[in-house]
Amino acid sequence: MNPSKKILVTGGLGYIGSHTVVALQEKGFRVVVIDNLSNSSLDVLGGITKITGETPAFYSFDLRNKEQVGEFFKNNMDLEGIIHFAASKAVGESVKMPLLYYENNLCSLLNILSLQSSSKLIFSSSCTVYGQADELPISENAPTKKAESPYGNTKQIGEEIIKDICKIEKDFKAISLRYFNPIGAHASAEIGELPIGTPQNLVPFITQTAIGQRKQLAVFGEDYPTNDGTAIRDYIHVMDVAEAHVAALNRLIKGKERDNYEVFNLGTGEGNSVLEVIHSFEKSTGQKLSYKIEGRREGDITAAYADTKKANKELNWKAKRSLDVALKSAWKWQEKINKREDL
């Protein structure tokens, strides 16, 4: 890949963003990161550098600040593409703080779209746009349902905004990647998921419980119509997700897109219940987990897993890493950050 290709990654020190920065740098892209550090840490820059031997250019500001966004794009007219991750992303929190989610997730996107200096955008979307789908696995043709949470709604609205711009600006090209449930960490354990405060996602809750940081894991709901009564999700290794972003970007750069707005699901194509994830973690790490069953969480759906045929074929990409591998890497990362905190 031509090393002169310069890519902006917003939220590039966040969980999926940082792994994508690594995947991009390993393919020779020049990466620029914007991150306001609201749900990430400056330490992540060091982790990226250790893995790739290269430190991406880094700007710390809030994308809701239109003036700073405009200034940035004025000074970076040579961007080949933008990968937009920066957003608040916890379903439960969004139900409690809807205004924060609408302001943060939509204002930042609008500022980028109105001021950007690139004509290629990859949008970090989510399978939450499907709600509780009528059919499983979920294909890209499944109708988007009324969102179950403000977070899901911001992703639906974000996609609609981008689609509307693509209709009138034929030179503008965008791909929305709808992730299912990214988990795990880079194999080096130099970067991984680092939630601030109480984790909103299952796997960091599992690893923090196993290491003794939390007394017990809460399993929300045992009365779902599934094999063991717990909710089913499609858990995909974060490095598989990161590599899909590189594949999507290459598609736009090489002009391989069929339309100037495209959507792809990113998942493994298989669903695992919460209890299956717990058992896989125990098996792959040798750690015993203490957990208790609680009531369902507002905004949660019964089951979601991806039909990945379109991404497999069009992006020439496939999730390669297993659930056991992902959980083992998450545990290695948890051990690493605990050692760091003990020093």
Defining traits:
single chain; 343 residues; alpha/beta; Rossmann fold; three-stranded mixed β-sheet; 11 helices; 14 strands
Could you explain the architecture of this structure?
- The protein is an alpha/beta fold.
- The chain has a single domain (about 5-340), classed as 3-Layer(aba) Sandwich (Rossmann fold), CATH 3.40.50.720.
- About 40% of the residues lie in helices and about 15% in strands.
- The chain contains 11 helices and 14 strands.
- It has helices at about 15-25, 45-50, 65-75, 90-95, 100-115, 150-170, 200-210, 240-255, 275-285, 310-315, 325-340, and strands spanning about 5-10, 30-35, 55-60, 80-85, 120-125, 175-180, 180-185, 215-220, 230-235, 235, 260-265, 270-275, 290-295, 305.
- The strands form 4 sheets. It has a 7-stranded parallel beta sheet, with helices on both faces. It has a 3-stranded mixed beta sheet with strand order 12-9-14. Strands 7-10 form a two-stranded parallel sheet.
- It starts with 5 loop residues before the first strand and ends with a helix.
Largest sheet: 7 strands, parallel
CATH architecture: 3-Layer(aba) Sandwich
One letter per element, helices H and strands E, the order comes to EHEHEHEHHEHEEHEEEHEEHEEHH
Give the strand content: 15-25%
Enumerate how many helices there are, as a single number. 11
The low-confidence runs, each spanning 5 or more residues with pLDDT under 50, are none
Q: Tally the structural domains.
A: 1
* Rg result: 19 Å
Number of strands: 14
Q: What is the average per-residue confidence, as pLDDT, rounded to a whole number?
A: 95
Morphology: globular
Give the class-level CATH name: Alpha Beta
User: Which strand order do you get reading across the main beta sheet?
Assistant: 3-2-1-4-5-6-11
CATH homologous superfamily descriptor: NAD(P)-binding Rossmann-like Domain
Gap from first CA to last CA: 40 Å
Decide which structural class fits the backbone: alpha/beta
